[in-house]
Write a structure and sequence with these properties.
Order of helices and strands: HEHHEHEHEHEHEHEEHEHEHEHEEHHH
Radius of gyration: 21 Å
Distance between the termini: 12 Å
Strand content: 15-25%
Structural class: alpha/beta
Helix content: 40-55%
Largest sheet: 7 strands, parallel
Strand order of the largest sheet: 3-2-1-4-5-6-7
Number of helices: 15
């Protein structure tokens, strides 16, 4: 009988995503932590491809156009990749879109893989967008029929997403609840200064409508105080139908009360700010919220299933229904709220014990070992 040590030596985990960012951000730390397991990255080439080649044991370019809702050539290319991979490998798909593409491809692949799917938020398919609702209707029959055959286990990040998806999909396989994808706590520069002449408010996100970018812009227009500066950090996601356009971004750059700073290095630069704003309408488990709490910022977040865990922490406040008046009142009267280094240190203890990369990696490792030995 194989021992756990032998299983780890033999184990090959394929991390699959239609976007290289998904296999870099946070997953790079999981891969590094579970160094005794062989990890293979399969994703399209992009901004993080060279980093992935240095982090994973092997990198395979999945030639797919992620800007298309469905890329047939990408499915064919994935079929060829999967047919070349060792039988009974564990294929771990990240995001629901990748899971759907992988499930379609599995119809044409003979290898007997063990499938894991991480649903990091229900995303565009479950949004209120009319096109998304039509697409969900078209895919419902396929998902109900084939997800049970494709995936041995599905990982969710909050109970609400789990209930919604299971009711929709009729998935009856094993499920796990893993809260977030972890952060490597030693990588972040921590905030040390809590008394400044100017209050610096930042919104960090992909520039998607459902992330609340337009709400944030409206918020900045409602507040005009010389001692408060507003910043927007993030990039367009042209592969997402919910993304702002280049023209939208040009108009944002012209805003008088808001400075657009593009993508930032969250680990090294976030400490320079005071308040982190999260106005997303859908989240599996908000990573930027966790990062902001760890760094030491005060967090103002829309109250949704993927952020309600903020109640565990100090230096933060949940806002119902993205209410702009509440956001404005807190920012305008910020001196009345508890915001301190002591609170930040207390938050870091919680994160270390519940949400760090080490904790999340151990949960992933248990899933992989159980699948390998079954």
């Amino acid at each position: 009988m194989l021992t756990i040590l032998t299983l780890k030596i033999l184990l090959m985990i394929v991390y699959l995503s239609h976007w290289d960012w998904n296999l870099y951000k946070s997953r790079k730390d999981i891969v590094s932590t579970l160094s005794e397991i062989n990890f293979r990255a399969v994703c399209p080439e992009g901004s993080y491809s060279n980093d992935l080649k240095n982090i994973y044991h092997e990198y395979i370019n999945w030639e797919i156009n992620r800007k298309k809702t469905f890329d047939l050539k990408g499915v064919i290319n994935l079929k060829n990749i999967l047919n070349s991979i060792e039988k009974e490998s564990i294929v771990h798909s990240f995001t629901l879109k990748t899971g759907i593409l992988y499930s379609i491809t599995q119809l044409f692949v003979k290898n007997n893989f063990k499938g894991v799917l991480s649903i990091n938020g229900l995303g565009y398919l479950f949004s209120d967008n009319l096109k998304a609702r039509f697409l969900k209707f078209l895919l419902s029959g396929f998902i109900k029929r084939y997800f049970n055959k494709t995936f041995n286990e599905i990982i969710f990040q909050n109970e609400s997403d789990k209930k919604i998806f299971l009711d929709f999909s009729n998935y009856s396989g094993k499920t796990s609840m893993i809260y977030g994808s972890g952060i490597e706590i030693n990588n972040y520069v921590k905030k040390e200064t809590y008394q400044t002449a100017k209050l610096k408010v930042i919104f960090v996100s992909r520039l998607l409508i459902d992330k609340g970018v337009n709400d944030y812009i409206q918020l900045t227009q409602n507040i005009d105080k010389p001692n408060i500066d507003f910043y927007l950090a993030g990039e367009l996601d042209e592969g997402n139908p919910n993304s702002l356009t280049k023209k939208n971004l040009e108009n944002i750059i012209k805003e008088n009360n808001l400075k657009y700073i593009g993508a930032i290095n969250v680990e090294k630069d976030l400490f320079n700010y005071d308040i982190s704003i999260i106005m997303s309408k859908y989240e599996g488990f908000s990573r930027i919220l966790l990062e902001s709490l760890h760094v030491g910022l005060f967090c103002l977040s829309n109250n949704i299933p993927g952020t309600k865990w903020l109640n565990e922490f100090n230096n933060g406040l949940l806002v119902e229904n993205n209410n702009l008046i509440t956001f404005s009142e807190v920012i305008n009267n910020f001196e009345n709220y508890s915001f301190s280094k002591i609170n930040a240190e207390s938050n870091r203890d919680i994160i270390k014990n519940k949400y760090s990369t080490k904790i999340i990696s151990n949960q992933y490792n248990e899933i992989y070992n159980n699948l390998a030995s079954s």
